[in-house]
Amino acid sequence: MISAILLAAGTGERFGAKKQFVEINNKPLFSYSLEVLLEFEKIEEIFLVIPLDKFSETFEKKVFNQFSNKVQLVAGGKTRAESVEKAIENLDPRTKLVLIHDAARPLLNCNQLNQLIDEIKSHDGATMVRPIHDTVKRIQRGQKISPVKREGLYAVETPQVFKYESLKSAILFTKNLDEVFTDETTALEHLNMKVLHVPNKDFNLKITTKDDMVVAEKFLQKQLKYSIGLDYHSVEPGPGISVGGVDIACEIQTKAHSDGDVLLHAIIDALFGALSSKDIGEHFPENENNKNIDSKKMLVDALNQFKKHFNIYFVDATITLNSPKISPHRKEIQASVAKLLSISKNNVSIKAITRNGLNFIDFKEGWGAEVILTFGK
Questions:
Q1: What long-range pairs does 217-223 form, CB within 8 A, spacing at least 24?
Q2: Is 172 helix (H, G, I), strand (E, B) or coil?
């Protein structure tokens, strides 16, 4: 059995804040690594180690609702070693291998994990390392600047994988020593255990300063994807329409098999498009089971499929409607859509257009919506 520990309990002194909770593209830094660990099927349990002051029912509910019951929260210690020790105390007794990763490195991938696990067999631990090619100098105030030979120099990174018994022994033996071990491989090597150093060919940025966050944001944006959703319906005289889950009283109603909320339908269409999963009509055919179905229920079904693979970062919607005017209801619609999608209102844009005096366009007998969905892992 393989267990994983994601370390997110640091104070972020050099960064100036708890960087692991700072958001990039509308989600906290730690979640990028957590999603990869969840995707890696060989891992059976994950321990997210967070600062004690982050423990709250709200945070716990958010983690469990957004991720899975495979994730358990652990209160971190004052040092990295204490945090690892606290997580080890909670491991399943069947654990054979322990994977450790720093939440400050958001570019984790499954290839790295597979490589470490495949190569650890004759070692007590294995870690990703990066050879140092730059000229290195030791600079200390009041002393002569001296170059350091770079031959054989490597920067130690995470992820790291350990045999459970070896890691536990090293942590317990070294915790009372005066020497500070900045990572677990160093603790193992202090006891002359065998550690394999695997050169990492992937970009593995560690967030230390706010400048690093800017680099990470640009890199992660390259992984964003886009999907378009479109829906139109006819209208007839009636008591009102539903737009984004908001009921608006007016002189028309939508002619539809469902409740006819074209904005939610367009969002659903974009979600299925992102999954390359047919169109909304095939998922919700016109039959007795779907007669007058609430579009919010349809959206929940679509989201349940979508969130197994992706996260929503931004929704840009344009509503096509002559009357009633959308502007008096814009904020309410924006808040409703954000709540339904579990994203910030700042990440939902609601716009509207009318015929605008153009005679070749006629919205008197219908209305619709177009949505551009920004999403990613």
A1: 217/24, 217/25, 219/107, 220/24, 220/25, 220/32, 220/106, 220/107, 220/376, 221/25, 223/376, 223/377
A2: helix
Residue 198's DSSP bridge partners are 128
Those residues with Cβ within 8 angstroms of residue 287's Cβ, 6 or more apart along the chain or in another chain = none
For 12, 41, 63, 342, 343, the CA distances from 55, given in Å and listed in that order, are 17, 27, 11, 21, 21
> pLDDT over 70 for what percent of the chain?
90
Q: CB neighbours (10 Å) of residue 241?
A: 24
**Residue ranges of domains in the chain, CATH in brackets:** 2-221 (3.90.550.10), 225-376 (3.30.1330.50)
According to DSSP, the β-strands at 136-138 and 43-50 are: unpaired
* Calculated CA dihedral for residues 83, 85, 89, 95, nearest 10 degrees: 110
Question: If we measure between CA atoms, which residue out of 326, 258, 331 comes closest to residue 296?
Answer: 258
CB 128 within 8 A of CB 106: no
Instruction: Answer whether 293's CB lies under 8 Å from 319's CB.
Output: no
pLDDT attached to residue 69: 74
Task: For residues 70 and 68, give the distance between their C-alpha atoms in angstroms, rounded to a whole number.
Answer: 5
Alpha-carbon distance 137 to 298, whole Å?
Answer: 61
> What crossing angle do the helices spanning 110-119 and 29-39 adopt, rounded to 10°?
60
If you average pLDDT over every residue of the chain, what do you get?
Answer: 85
| pTM (global) more than 0.85 | no
Looking at 78-87, 139-148, 259-268, 357-366, which range is the least confident one?
357-366
